[in-house]
Amino acid sequence: MADVLASPPKTSPSEAGPRQADPVGTHHEEGPPRRDFLKLAAGSFAAVGVGVVAWPFITSMNPSADVLALASTEVELAPIAEGQAITAMWRGKPVFVRHRTAKEIEEARAVPQNRLIDPATDQSRVKPGKDQWLVVIGICTHLGCVPLGQKPTDNRGEYGGWFCPCHGSQYDTSGRVRHGPAPANLALPDYAFTSDTKIRIG
Amino acid sequence: MPEGLHESDVKNPVLRWVDQRLPVISMVQREYGTFPTPRNFNYFWNFGALAMISLAIMIATGVVLSMQYAANTGLAFDSVERIMRDVNYGWLLRYIHANGASMFFIVVYIHIWRNLFYGSYKTPRELLFMIGVVIFILMMATAFMGYVLPWGQMSFWGATVITNLFSAIPVVGNSIVTWLWGGFSVDNPTLNRFFSLHFLLPFVITGVVFLHITALHITGSNNPLGIEPKGPQDTIPFHPYYTSKDSIGIVVYLLVFALLVFFAPNMLGHPDNYIPANPLVTPAHIVPEWYFLPFYAILRAVPNKLGGVAMMGGALVVLFFLPWLDSSPVRSMRFRPIGKIAFLLFTANFFVLMWAGGKPAEQPYILIAQIATTYYFAYFLVILPLLAKFERPLTLPESISRAVLKHRGGGPLPAGATAKPMEKA
Fold it and tell me: In which residues is heme b b566 bound (chain B) (predicted)?
């Protein structure tokens, strides 16, 4: 192998017309010339090498360990009266915790599925037996604005949920998108009830 | 002369010694001194030089501003206020930098307008034009990241909306956005990397500008008539004719720049960006900087997320195909009666998009933006290809010198000034 690698520069120092000028290549009539193989092999190794070296640079831009460590938040539900909502902070994002009224739950459940942009039942968006508590990530699924509707004085849109002031998306009392341009319902964070009046998000 | 040295015409012995070993003086003399340039440029041909000046001003002010700025979410806003209040001439440097971005875009938009009107994108200058589009896109990225750095409300929410554009990409969209952010929302890692890239990209732009100029000096400049120079009687040396013409443009440019900086430094900005960033409250009305508004209007005109993002990207990508979409052999719109009207409508339509992009996302603005978006794309994809087939252009002049001497021969001074190279030829 060593003499193969060493010989071509000696025998053909010029770059022009390697096949004709290369005496090493002319010795092998069958199959692709040895130089093509060497070029291909060296090229593939270089490509793999570039990939391996690039990977740490690329992944260094992904969330770091300290960012991932701040991944859970506890919320006390007892002070939230019926009809009220609070905004908790989780992973730098707002989480809407809404204590829904019976009328709001009723409205959310009465909607036929075929009228929804992103069909999902209201039951699938709350924990069983905790129908009054709606917990959603308060970020519009269009381009990431925080929708209005946490305060009773806010514009909640036609469906009584949330209204995004950036591009006009509207959500209902189950946090489902009812009017575009947002393509999806407000996302549900991973959360669990640690007691009747407390949840842990994340 | 020892062997292997460059043959130099420089008289000064020291400069000659340098030029023989590194022929930069010969190069400048060749490319900016005697460089044969069409004799009929109008003032629209100032804007390439003005864009270079803008880039230099942005880099100069940016470097000193970065010495005072702190790229940390807890410090950024206050460090910018400190620049405004405490740093010597900090207010001046920051206002030059902020308004310099606007000046840069004004100049580049006029430069692109000139290109489209006089058909400079056509063969043999296709690649020159495409490199220019790359510079324009790099400028947009740089300006966007720079606007995030003061960490005001518009900074934060602009960054949120624009980075979320990538979430429209099917399957991998959300992973890409998390990677861009370095977290789960726009936060400290995002601010840090935007500062790093905002510092880097202007130098990348400088590199691509050199490619742009190298390509320009292969083909030479287009001119208002859109016909190639046929000999020395059609050209004049770049210096002193166009160095002096560019100087006049630079003086006017600096006048406008100074007016903005000293009398209306915040006219083109948003008051909301003097409110520190708050991830829990979105401003009632998010508007990007004025130079992004036409593209923002296209984004909002489509009631579908992926569709809107694709159309907005497409509005830029379509430019790369322009040299082949417009196959009319006549370059200058001066000689294209229908093309001229279609292009002037396109220009007006661009301003309609700009206006609609600054309005809230509601009717009738959405409908207006939709009509304007349709015309934007129709101009490139339907009108230009059809005109190339069916339009009957006016007769082109025989040569640049013929046309110039016929139209401009009246006044004694221009006639004398332009006649000299003619006599030599």
Answer: 111, 212
How large is the average pLDDT for residues A83-96? 86
Q: Which residue of A has its CA nearest to B178?
A: A62
**What's residue A3's pLDDT?**
45
Q: Which helix (H) or strand (E) holds A199?
A: strand A198-201
Residue A194's pLDDT is 87
| The two three-digit tokens of residue B2, written as one number | 């020892």
Residue B401 tokens read as 């010198």
Which domains does chain B possess? Answer: 38-286 (1.20.810.10), 291-394 (1.10.287)
> In the predicted model, what is the mean pLDDT of residues B102-109?
97
Q: Kindly tell me the burial class for residue B203, based on how many C-beta atoms sit within 10 Å of its own C-beta (0-12, 13-18, 19 or more).
A: exposed
- Complex ipTM value: 0.70
CA A29 to chain centre: 55
Average confidence (pLDDT) over A24-41: 75
Cα B315 to Cα B310: distance, rounded to the nearest angstrom = 9
pLDDT one-digit tens code per residue, B288-338: 999 999 999 999 888 888 898 999 999 999 999 999 999 999 999 999 999
Is B361's Cβ below 8 Å from some Cβ in A? yes
Per-residue pLDDT band at A24 (split at 50, 70, 90): low
Closest Cβ opposite residue A92 in set B279, B284, B361: B279
The architecture in CATH of the region A66-201 reads 3-layer Sandwich (2.102)
Residue B217 is labelled as binding a ligand: yes
> What residues of chain A lie within 8 A of the CB of B163, using their CB?
144
Q: Which of B81, B217, B239, B359 is catalytic?
A: B217
Residue of A87, A145, A168 lying closest to B362 (CB–CB): A168
**Chain B residue with the nearest C-alpha to that of A71:** B184
Residue B223 has what pLDDT?
95
- Nearest CA of chain B to the CA of A131: how many Å? 25
Query: Dihedral of the CA atoms B308, B309, B313, B318 (nearest 10)?
Result: -30
pLDDT over threshold 80, residue B284: no
Is B97 marked as a binding-site residue? yes
Count of residues in chain A: 202
Alpha helices, DSSP H, located in B264-304: 293-301
Q: Return the SS3 of A27.
A: coil
For residue A87, the chain B residues in CB contact (below 8 A) are 280
Partners of A136 in the beta sheet? A96
pTM of the model: 0.83
In whole numbers, what is the pLDDT of chain B averaged over residues? 91
Does the bond joining B240 to the residue before it have cis omega, within 30 degrees of 0? yes
Q: Do B280 and A166 touch (CB under 8 A)?
A: no
**Order of strands across the sheet that contains A93-99:** A85-90, A93-99, A133-137
pLDDT of residue B125: 95
Chain A residue closest to B163 (CA)? A143
Chain B residue numbers with beta carbons less than 8 Å from the beta carbon of A143 are: 160-161, 164-165, 167, 305
